[in-house]
């Protein structure tokens, strides 16, 4: 039996079906991302798990227990919102301790768990500071510590890194995954960022218009997309001879599909090409190894492996 089970979950807002027949089984300790564009139903799904939104139909079970019969505050879930939702008048330690105080945890135990959790997220020296004195990344860690300190059965993350700049976001992805592995908490992440979902997750649930398009390990969904939507949503792709070919799989060769370089763009660690061919415009990504690369207007041949 899976630790968390969503069975044929539906949610209607008037005539609009936001979530349509979603079925998902999550193992204990697993990190699963709900991934898709705005309006696909991923946040609504998270809110139904949290208890903030009541399903129109279907079931949610946690460790075999009907979660829909449990009030949100008693579900034992830790939640990190996009806005962090920190209390500005409280110190870092007071923010983290808030949930424990609501549970009536004794002061000595509360202080001990707050200190341990702040060490876990790398903020042991920041306990007496206020949120306004912290960077965005540090505020995100406080929000994560506040969710983890109650020792939740499931950690729910609603676009927690979306307010960070690109470099800090990448750093926090690494830290978040390390913390999750250390603690071992079952985690559900909502994100529209494909790279983030693939970097963090054991499995991803690709959603579109309320329905699940594919549930798979990140590399499997990327290499073997179940639908054209998944192929296009998980990075760039080319449709050549009826098959999806990822741009990084294509090389410049002595023979193969003939074409002319229409555009080349330098992106630091790689080159992005668009090549005119008899099959239409083909996107090519080549790593920047320092070697000379074809210029715009050059005649080239493209080759790729038939399998991933």
Q: CATH class of the largest domain, anyone?
A: Alpha Beta
What would you say the CATH architecture of the largest domain is? 3-Layer(aba) Sandwich
C-alpha geometry: globular
Let me know the number of strands.
17
Summarize this, please?
The chain has 308 residues and is α+β, with helices and mostly antiparallel strands. The protein has helices at 42-50, 92-102, 107-120, 136-148, 166-183, 194-200, 218-223, 228-233, and strands at 4-13, 16-26, 31-35, 57-62, 65-66, 77-80, 154-158, 186-191, 203-208, 211-216, 238-240, 243-245, 251-253, 257-266, 270-277, 280-287, 299-303.
Could you explain how this protein is built, in words?
The chain has 308 residues and is α+β, with helices and mostly antiparallel strands. It has 8 helices and 17 strands. It has helices at 42-50, 92-102, 107-120, 136-148, 166-183, 194-200, 218-223, 228-233; strands spanning 4-13, 16-26, 31-35, 57-62, 65-66, 77-80, 154-158, 186-191, 203-208, 211-216, 238-240, 243-245, 251-253, 257-266, 270-277, 280-287, 299-303. Strand 9 and strand 10 (211-216) form a beta hairpin. The longest helix is centred in the middle third of the chain and has 18 residues, at 166-183. It is globular and about 75 Å long. The protein starts with a strand and ends in a 5-residue tail after the last strand. 34% of the residues are buried. The mean pLDDT is 92.
